Amino acid sequence: MASAYGASMSTGAARLFAGAMRAPPSRLSWSASMCPIGRWLDRPAVLAPMSAQQPAQLLSVRSAWTRRSAAEKKAQSQKNQAKKSWGQRTEKYLKPFMMDVFISNRYIHAKIVHRVTSRVVAVATTNAKDLRNSLQSLCDYNACRVVGQLLAERAKEADIYAVVFELRAGEKYDGKLAEVVDTFAKNGISLI
Question: How big is the CA angle at 86 (ends 81 and 91), to the nearest 5 degrees?
């Protein structure tokens, strides 16, 4: 067999090369397509150091067993995470209160949240007992004005005089949302 592949190959290398050139497997599976390493090396399945005489198929077999540990994966993901800028990290401390307005088909909800602690400081909704019984409609423009005014009064009670308001993705500043926010701003609370 060594004479068929050249005089420079040893018998072990010739057997290794001949094993790599075997016929395709009859079954279609990942394990059936791989030649057993023990058969290639004439010893138990232990990976030997790579040499220039071994075929390229052994490289793919070797890479199948190289896996990263969980600690390596975690370190790599932490390295890839983008670090927030100074402005992103300090803005919530400089402007701590945020106004959130949600308008459904039945109710109007507005609240002021402390951005650092995520604590709700003031809330006004048409679903509350005091407003539910006093309003004719729970989702018209009059209800929007009442919710904005009530939220402004409750914010003043909590010593809040400046609030950040940001639109959600895809949200427009018009209609009922604009009515709630404008009424809130007209009652002595400044929007930043």
Answer: 110
